[in-house]
Structures are given as C-alpha cells and as structure tokens.
Automatic annotation (TrEMBL), chains A, B:
<feature type="binding site">
    <location>
        <position position="109"/>
    </location>
    <ligand>
        <name>ATP</name>
    </ligand>
</feature>
<dbReference type="InterPro" id="IPR011761">
    <property type="entry name" value="ATP-grasp"/>
</dbReference>
<comment type="function">
    <text>Catalyzes the ATP-dependent conversion of 5-aminoimidazole ribonucleotide (AIR) and HCO(3)- to N5-carboxyaminoimidazole ribonucleotide (N5-CAIR).</text>
</comment>
<dbReference type="Pfam" id="PF17769">
    <property type="entry name" value="PurK_C"/>
</dbReference>
<keyword id="KW-0436">Ligase</keyword>
<dbReference type="GO" id="GO:0005524">
    <property type="term" value="F:ATP binding"/>
</dbReference>
<dbReference type="GO" id="GO:0004638">
    <property type="term" value="F:phosphoribosylaminoimidazole carboxylase activity"/>
</dbReference>
<dbReference type="Pfam" id="PF02222">
    <property type="entry name" value="ATP-grasp"/>
</dbReference>
<dbReference type="GO" id="GO:0005829">
    <property type="term" value="C:cytosol"/>
</dbReference>
<feature type="binding site">
    <location>
        <begin position="184"/>
        <end position="187"/>
    </location>
    <ligand>
        <name>ATP</name>
    </ligand>
</feature>
<feature type="binding site">
    <location>
        <begin position="270"/>
        <end position="271"/>
    </location>
    <ligand>
        <name>ATP</name>
    </ligand>
</feature>
<keyword id="KW-0547">Nucleotide-binding</keyword>
<dbReference type="InterPro" id="IPR013815">
    <property type="entry name" value="ATP_grasp_subdomain_1"/>
</dbReference>
<protein>
    <recommendedName>
        <fullName>N5-carboxyaminoimidazole ribonucleotide synthase</fullName>
        <ecNumber>6.3.4.18</ecNumber>
    </recommendedName>
</protein>
<feature type="binding site">
    <location>
        <begin position="154"/>
        <end position="160"/>
    </location>
    <ligand>
        <name>ATP</name>
    </ligand>
</feature>
<comment type="pathway">
    <text>Purine metabolism; IMP biosynthesis via de novo pathway; 5-amino-1-(5-phospho-D-ribosyl)imidazole-4-carboxylate from 5-amino-1-(5-phospho-D-ribosyl)imidazole (N5-CAIR route): step 1/2.</text>
</comment>
<dbReference type="GO" id="GO:0006189">
    <property type="term" value="P:'de novo' IMP biosynthetic process"/>
</dbReference>
Amino acid sequence: MTATDPLPPGSTIGILGGGQLGRMLALAAARLGMKTHVYCPDALSPAFEVTPHRTVAAYDDEAALAAFAEAVDVVTYEFENVPAQTAEFIAARVPLRPGARALAVSQDRLEEKGFLSDSGVPVAPYRPVYSLDDLEAALAELGTPAVLKTTRLGYDGKGQRIVRSINEAAAAFDALDPKPLVLEAFIGFDKEISVIAAGNARGEVVSFEPSENVHRDHILKTSTVPAAISAELAAKAADAARRIVGALDYVGVMGIEFFVLPGGEDLLVNEIAPRVHNSGHWTEAVCVTDQFEQHIRAVVNWPLGDVTRTADVVMENLIGYEVDSIVELLGPGIRPHLYGKTEARPGRKMGHINRVGEQTGRK
Amino acid sequence: MTATDPLPPGSTIGILGGGQLGRMLALAAARLGMKTHVYCPDALSPAFEVTPHRTVAAYDDEAALAAFAEAVDVVTYEFENVPAQTAEFIAARVPLRPGARALAVSQDRLEEKGFLSDSGVPVAPYRPVYSLDDLEAALAELGTPAVLKTTRLGYDGKGQRIVRSINEAAAAFDALDPKPLVLEAFIGFDKEISVIAAGNARGEVVSFEPSENVHRDHILKTSTVPAAISAELAAKAADAARRIVGALDYVGVMGIEFFVLPGGEDLLVNEIAPRVHNSGHWTEAVCVTDQFEQHIRAVVNWPLGDVTRTADVVMENLIGYEVDSIVELLGPGIRPHLYGKTEARPGRKMGHINRVGEQTGRK
C-alpha cells in the first residue's frame, strides 16, 4: 500500500481527543464504513459514546499510545494542541494525518504568522515579545491599542490581553504565560469570516464557501452562509486557503479564520486550525459532503467530496444552559446536533442547531 | 414523567436489531445527544460499531432482555419480525415504540390487509388460504395470474410465488411455508412509490414526499425524489399514510409501499413496515430532518422534524460486491453511506449512495 492508496471500508481510524469534534468525526467515519478508536484522558468524553473502541490514558502514556497505534490504520486528531512528543511517537508507528508540520505551525502563533507570511497570505502586523523591553519597542512600532497574546495554548479568547497604552505594558506582560508572547496590531475589521478547506495526498484542494461568524464572549455564536461579502473577496479567501493547504502539503480539513477589513475589499488571516472547525458545522445541514466526512475522506486517502450547498443556513452554537431549551428551540428548518456532554457549564459548547433556509436577507 | 414528556438528552435508547437500520438509528440518536444500547444475537452486527453499549443475546433470552430493559429508557427496533413474546416482555418493563399492535399488524399479511381495509386504505383483492381447496377457490375468484404469499416472515421477494394457472396451485401451495398463506390478485401497475410517515405521542403526523422505487431481483435498487406522479396522487398517498399512522396511534417512522395503478390516478398499499425503511434513505442527503432522526424524535417524545427537501435526489443501493467500487463511484453530487458489514455477499445490502441534485428530467 502506498501513501495514496485508499484505505478500504472496515479500516480503523484512531482519533486523538474525545470532545464533540472527535465525536462528529467518528460519526462521519461510520457513514463511510470505517471503524474508529478514540483516545482521550477523560473517561467521560462525548466521543466514547459513539464507538466501542476506546483508550482512556494520558497523552504521554507511551504504552497506551503504542497499543493504540497498533490497533488502528491511521491516526487523526480533533485538537491542535496534541503534544509534539505524542505526535512524533504516533507518527513513527502509523500514518498521522494531518502531519506533524501542521501541528507545529498551528501550536505556535509566531510559527503560524511566519508560515502564513512566507506563503504569501496577509496577516496583521506583529512582533515577537520575549521581554518587557521587546513589548515596549513593539508597542512603539505598531501603536496602541494592540493585542498581546501567548504564542501557545490560547483558544476562545483565553491567553490574550488588549494593551490600550504603553502604561499597561508591564501588567499585560506579567499576566500572560507561558512566554514568549506576540504583539499584534489591533486591526479594525468589518466582520469575521472563515473558510473550511481540505487537502488530500492525491493533491486535491477543495474549500467550502466562506461563512460569516459572530462571536459572543469570545466564543463563536453563529455562522451564516452565504456570508455578506463580495464574490471577489470570497475568491481571495479561497485563494488564501489554497496557498495554506498547498504550502503544508496538508491532508485533512483545516479551519481558516479571516478578518474582513473596512471597505470589504481585503482580508487578513487571523488564525488557522488543523482540524474540523466549529465554524464549519453548517456544512452538515446543507452540503453534499460535510466537513467531518471531508476530513475522514482525506485521512483515508479517498477523493475529496462535493462541497455544493443546497440551501442558506445559519448555525448557532448552544452554549452552557442554552441546551436545556433544546425541545423548545425545535421548529421549521431546525436541524439539531447535541454533543452528549454529561454536564452543562457556562461557556461550554453543548450542541448547535442549524437553521436551514433561514432568510438572511442576502442574495 | 407522562407518556408525552420528552426524554432529555443523555437518555438511553435500546435498539432491537443490529443491522444497518439499527446502526443508522444509533447515529441519528447520537446527533440528538442520546445514548444507544444495541441488542442483537449476532456479535458481528454493524450497529455494534457505533455504540459502546451492547447485548449479544438471543431474542428469547429473558435474563438478557431484562437486563437490557433495565439499562435503557425506551426501546425501539429496526425490524418488524421482533417476536411477539420479546415485544411483550420488553413492553412490560419499559416503553416500546412503536407499540405491539404495529408489530402484530405488520408481521402477518392477513392482519395487515384486514387492518388496511378497515382503515379505508385501498389494497389489492386478496383471500386467505389455509388449504389447497381454499387456494383453488381463491384462484377462481381472483383469476390468474395471482400471487401466493406466506403471511409471515417474507421480505425481499422471499416467501412468494406467482401462480400462472390453476394447474400450478398444488405445487405453489406445497412450496410455501409456514401456512396459512394469502392469495393476492396480480395487479398491473405503472410504478412503485413509497411514503415514509411518522407519528408521535403528541398526535403529530408528518410524511416525507413520495419516492419512486425501482427493484432489481426483488431488492430495492433506486429511490428517486421527486417521483414522477401527479400532485393529486401524492396527496392520496399522504392521505393513506395519515390514516394508517392515525389508526395505529403510531409512534415512530413507518415505511408504506404503494403500487401506482395504470393511468396514474390511483394507488394501492402493497405493504407497511413499522420502522425506518430502505426507500427513505434519500432523506438523509436532502431533508432538514432525515427518517432516522424523525424516528428517534418520535421515540423520545420530541416534536417531529421538518421534512422539507432542498434538492432532487436518487438513492441507489450498493448490493453485494458493488460496494468494492465505492471509491470509483464517488464524484460530483455523491454522498456515500456504507454500513460497515464485514463481508460482502450476493444480494446483501452493503451501503447506498445518494446522488444529490441528480437530473431526473422531471419538474
């Protein structure tokens, strides 16, 4: 079997991470006749409810990782913070898709920005910050306000601070760990969009239409498709996606977040995630192939699927106790998806609904 | 909790039967945040790959059934031939949906035809056949050719014989077991359609658009939507579905097969199945709610879902070794669904593809 031979139905896909993304990947894999084996340290993980094959172990448990690798044909993951040592250990034993480079790039904001710039993709001006002196110099160059971020392990607004004046530099520097940090120019933008792109080992690259995303309390609240952007801007987003996927020889689905700059003619890449993405959950309701199936197709070396969309849609996350109202939320056009989490907590993503055919007031 | 209170996410649905229908029910239940527990005598059943909760035991194993009933909040099934004793045993312990009457009616062709006639739904003329004398008398009344069928356990063309002349009566009578049999008039028809209908304990009744079905070797090969029938005929089919679901106080999804009579203005019910149905697999590709989610919604007392269709579609079964070509079958508009069966055999349903947006040449 070569690296581009398709894995046959009945193969077993190992999934690192047992949250809702791993769960939805497992459900999609089942539709392709594949088995799944979920690896996660938390025995109550939602993905454990959709497969009989599980490993409950830490990501640095080499005996457990070795047995896991032995039991599967290929490994993928639901989160970009898979430890590098874990990724290396797995990749030495069984194909890991997407590969280690995608993880390395997306785990470190400095690496990511360097990679994106090198790939000809626009990003906000930024400076690395190893010391308070660096920060003060960077603030002088980029101006205030600016955004100071950790380079690693940030998500949903965690690990970042807005610095409104040079006087706030020391407090912000002290508040964020681990170092180094990165200072980004504070970019005014009209809206946020994202593109779910995919590549496979056959060299195919496909991306879904951009969605327009609204965050609340730093957590994605809605994704609307079509986004209210020009065809030209959509083409720029697709081009950026193609460059990124191509430059990484990427295998799998990737989420790429953009800021649309004032005027609506240009955009910047905010960040990339080497995995299925919350802002792609709309695809399951209205596309021939959804992002989860697309990712599994790439991982098993099948041709990428058709991303044609058959209706307008608004995806809305159900966060915390919102899920308790699920029965009342049902109605015309509503396609629900709950994650089977045992406990609702404030800020926890419990599920989502897709409003199919939602009148967006857009062409 | 009353009989119409919705079960909350995290409840466990017991599924009798571990084939592809049980598997697809389990996948849909997972999307609603429900757990599933599959009960099947065959340890290699496809549905066992999509849940960690399983019982491998015979349908008459009362200890296993009791433990199963104890472990779940509600029980449903993927096949209409659940033994009556099994159904009674379960229903005495935990809600069984659809209920025992639906099973009794659909397990016996004579019961079924009597029920349908009593409900004001047209069926082909038929006579019960307990003896060769009965058969000869029935042939004299209904004419030849006619179709002689077992009353129980027939599917995919098994358990039936066409009787072309009275001379064939004895051979046909001897060939079919168990007795009694039923003789049906041989109805010429233009085409076969089916309707997937649903009812719930809230009194809601909803049906999907009719599909037009083509069989090959007595096994469903394709379902096309929209069917090439008049709006008036579609309304007649929906009306028949409503009568059937209403007369049974039915909870769940039901497949209803019709013959469209020459001229296209009238139809007969061929048979009903108290379960999700192969001719409803198209719904997963193009409807807001698919038949599997619809069934689970009914079973957990949630409101029924929106059956709006967003594209034309042709569902094609992959039978036997056809599944080996799955990667070659992929292409624009194709949404695959494989069942994870370990071994292809001639005549075995291994998966299906939906051709979304397929040009049917119809309005």
